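Supplementary material to the annual report.
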Amino acid sequence: MSKIMENLRYSKDHEWVRIEGDKAYVGITDHAQHELGEIVFVELPPLGEQYRKGEEISTVESVKAASAIINPVEGVVHEANEDLDGSPELINEDCYAHHLYILTSFSQADYDELLDAKAYQAYLETL
Amino acid sequence: MIYPYIPHTDEDRKVMLEAIGLSSMEELFSGLSEDILLSDSVPISHGRTEDEVQRMIDSIAQRNVRGIPFLGCGCYDHIIPSTVEALSSLPSFVTAYTPYQAEMSQGLLQAIYEFQSMICEITSMDVANASLYDGANAASEAASLMVGAKRHASVVLVSSTLHPFTLQVLQTWAKGTGKSLRIVKEKDGVVDLSLLSSLLDSTCAGLIVQSPNRYGLLESYEGVAEILHEQKALFAISNDPLSLAMQKSPGQWNADIAIGDTQSLGLPLAFGGPSCGFMAVKEALLRKLPGRLVGLTEDGKGRKGFTLTFQAREQHIKRERATSNICSNQALAALMTTIHLSSLGWDGMLEAANQSYAKAHYLAYHLAQLPGMTLVWDKPFWCEFPLVFSDSKRLRKFMQELRNEGIFAGVRLSTLTRKVKDELVLLVAVTEKRSREELELYLAAARRVMK
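Predicted assembly:
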C-alpha cells in the first residue's frame, strides 16, 4: 500500500507538487519510488530554465531502470535539490521529505488540474 | 562425409533428431508450407574445396601493387610491435567480442578497463568508454551527446577542416536525426575561429574540430572553450591519438569531449579497417557518454574485480529515450591498441611521434625547394603535409614517376572530397617507419621529375 499525503497534489506520472508561497516543490510519489526500486542517481534540471507541463525535465536512475520525470506544472526551475547529488537514496527513505526541484512563476491552472490525494488514491487502484 | 564448414555428421543429426522424437529432416520442416521450402538446388555456383578457394584468393591478392607508402589521410603506416598480433590472436580474446555475459569475462573486462585508462591519460580527460566503431562514428556520437546535453539545441558547429569522411558521416547523422550542421570555414588551411562568435547562438549544441586536420596541419584552440561554455555549448576535439604525445591534449584545451581513431596505435592498414574509435569526456558528462563502460570494483569478499557500469545510459535500459544506439564496442581492435601502448610505453609513443615529425619535416623541407610545388600554408604540421602543385599535369606525372620507382607519393585530396579546389593538393604522410633510404629515394625521384 503506497503512502499518500493529504496536503499534496499529484500527477498521473506519479509526481507530487506542494505549494509554499510563490514556490512549487516537485518530487516523486511513494508509488513511484517503490516501482523504481533502489535509486542510484537523480539528474537535476538546469536552473533558470522554463519547462512546460508534460515536458521531460530530468531522469531518475534505479538499479532496474532509468525513468523520465515529467514536469507536472509549467514554471521556471528555481532550485534543484543538491542533497540528492550524493545521496539519491534519500528518495527511497522519504520521498515526500525530499523534493527534486522547486519551480517559480508556476502555472496555477496546471496545479489546479492535478489530482488531489483522494483522486490519486483512486487512480492508483485502477493500475 | 564431413564438410570442413559443417561440424555435424549424419550420425550426429540422427542422434539429435531422435532426441526430439523425429525420424528425418523432412519431418523437422513439415510445419513449413510448400511454397516457402526450396524445391530445387540453391541458385549459387557449385562448392569449391578449401584449396581452390585459397588459390583463388591468393591470385586476387597478387594483383595488389606493393610500394613504399607515403599515404595517410586518416590511415597511417606506423611500426607495430609483433607483440600486438601475437597476443591479440589468443583465442580467448579473438572469440570474446564485446562482453555480453560480461562479468564472466574478467580478462576481457580488464583489457577494456586498461584501454579506457590509457585513453584518459593520452587525452587528459576524466572518463573514456570501451571504444566506438571508428573515428567518424565517434564524431557523430559526439554530435549526439552535445545535442542531448543542451535543451532546445539543434545545431552542431563543425570545422570545414574535419576529415572529409568524418564530415560526410556527420552529414548523414544530421539528416537522420533532423538536426543541422553549421560549417565554420577555414583560413590558410586551419579552422577560422574568428568566425565562431558570429556563428554561435543559443541553438548551437557545440563545436567539433580536428587537429591534425584534413591537411595534416595542427590547429590552435586558445580561448575557444570559454567562448563555447559562455553559450552552454560543448567543445569536442578530434585528434590522431599518437599526435597527443607532442601536441596539446583536449583536456589541456579545456575541451569537454575528446574523440578520434586509434588506427595509429597498433592497427594495421588492411585496406582501411577495421579501425577503432575512442571517446573521452569530462566527469560532468559521464552519464551522457555513449557505449560500454567498464569499472573497477570489489566483490563480496573484497577482491578486486571488473564490471560493466553506468548501464542506465545504454539503450537496453533507457530504451527509446537513449541518446545513443551504440550497444557494442570494437573490443578486439581496442585490445590491439592497448597491447600496442603497453609495448611502447610513454617513451616509445613519444619516440614514434617525434620521429614521424622529424622525418615528415625533413622531406617537406627538401620538397619545398623544388619548382612547381609549394607548402602553400605557413602552418605547423606533424606527420603529414599538403603539397600544392602548380598544375594537375605535373601532379599526375609526379605520382606516376614515383610509382614507377615503387613509391606511393601521397593521396590526392580531391579523391576524397571530389572538389575542384582540392585537385592540386597532394597529402604526403611520413611516419617513423620510413627509413632514411626511403626518404632519399623519394627525394631523388622528385628531383628528377620536378626540375
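Chain B has a mean pLDDT of 93.
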